[in-house]
Structure formats: C-alpha cells, structure tokens
Amino acid sequence: MDFKSKYFDKIRIDKGKKKKTETVTGVCQWDGCDKPATHRAPMGRDREGQYLNFCIDHVREYNKTYNYFSGLDDDSIAKYHKDSLTGHRPTWTMGVNKSGADGYVNEPGPKDPTAARIRARLGPGGARTGGTQRVRKLRTLEKKSLDQLGLPPTANADDIKTRYKELVKRHHPDANGGDRSSEEKLRQIIQAYKYLRQAGFC
C-alpha cells in the first residue's frame, strides 16, 4: 500500500488535531459586569441558535434559573414531551397511511384515510347503515374459504356463522344416518370456518 497516496490522505484521521471550538469574545452581558465573556448560554424557547455571552460566574448563575418551559402551561409541556418521542415529526396509526392503503377500498368514492377506525366498527362485508358499502380486498385463502362455505365476498360475521351451522348440520354423519361419504366435505367446511375466524371475519 502506498501511504503517500492522495486517496489515503483523504481518509486519514489526524489525531494531533484538536476539535475546533467557537471562541466567545466581548464583555459579559450580565448587567453591571465588565469581565470578559468566556461562555455562551442559550436565549430560550423560540430563539434556538441564539446565545447570550457571560463570564464564568454569571453563566453559572444563569444556568441555575434557566427553564426552557417557562411560560407554558402543563398541557403544552405534556404535548411537547409527547412530540419529542418522535422527534416532533408527524405520525400515523399503525397500518394506516395518508393514502388509506390498509387493505380496504371505498366503493364508490376516494380512498379513506380513516379506514382503520371505520373497519373496527364494520364486519368483513363492510355493511354500514346509512353509509357507503365497503368491500374488503380478499386474500387467496380468505376467498377460497368463503367459496367453500358458498358465500360472497360481502358476507358479514352473522352470514358466515349461520351458513357454517347450516352446512355442519347438513354434512354431519349423525344427520345422514351414519353415512360417512360427506365427512371430507365436513372437514373442509370446519377448516374454512376456523380460518375465517382467525382472519377476523367472525
């Protein structure tokens, strides 16, 4: 390796160099003090990046009484602390974004950013009295399970439960005089119902 290479010089860390610090010059800004200002102190809220210059004694005095939140009520302080957890950046509920792409679509109308809250009040069919019809985008296994029960994608929890009970009664060996020919069909119905239940359909 060529240690005199221009590329090596660009990545070299010079341990001999000290960190550059800003020097404070002038006279202490404390009333009646004419000592040299050697330390900076922040001016306060809403004046970030602005500083007062003090001598060592007065910067200590200033720091004892400094309160960033002075003049704010308790609610504003609590809101500031809550916002600081996310770096004062906007956040959204998990699984929901501005486009409303959360697995649901509105029919008709634009995408709804409040879909998660509405979905909590709706069944998988999305029926809502006095409102628009909402249809859930089905995954492959969800569609297959609904087909197994002979139900449309708009079926709600009550429809699924009613249909399940009806099919179990129809295909159970006890209802068929001990005939086990529809036992496989019964197993598929039970499996489909269990999957729909785990997926939150009923």
What features would you describe in this structure?
With 202 residues, this protein is mainly alpha-helical. The chain has 2 domains: 22-68, no CATH class; 104-198, Helix Hairpins (Orthogonal Bundle). 37% of the residues lie in helices and 8% in strands. It contains 7 helices and 4 strands. The protein has helices at residues 6-11, 56-65, 74-84, 115-121, 140-148, 157-171, 183-198; strands at residues 39-42, 51-54, 104-107, 133-136. The strands form 2 sheets. It has a two-stranded antiparallel ribbon with strand order 1-2. Strands 3-4 form a two-stranded antiparallel sheet. A hairpin with an 8-residue loop joins strand 1 (39-42) and strand 2 (51-54). 14% of the residues are buried.
The domain tally reads 2
> Approximately what portion of the residues adopt beta-strand conformation?
5-15%
Would you give the CATH topology of the largest domain? Helix Hairpins
Q: How many helices?
A: 7
Please tally the β strands and state the result. 4
- CATH C-level category of the largest domain: Mainly Alpha
Average pLDDT: 76
Major pleated sheet = 2 strands, antiparallel
General shape: elongated
Q: Which structural class do you get from the secondary structure elements?
A: mainly alpha
CATH architecture of the largest domain: Orthogonal Bundle
Determine Rg (CA atoms, Å): 35 Å
Portion in helices: 25-40%
Low-confidence runs of at least 5 consecutive residues: 100-110, 125-131
Oligomeric status of the shown chains?
Answer: single chain
Alpha-carbon distance between the termini? 69 Å
- List the secondary-structure elements in sequence, H or E: HEEHHEHEHHH
The CATH homologous superfamily name of the largest domain equals DnaJ domain
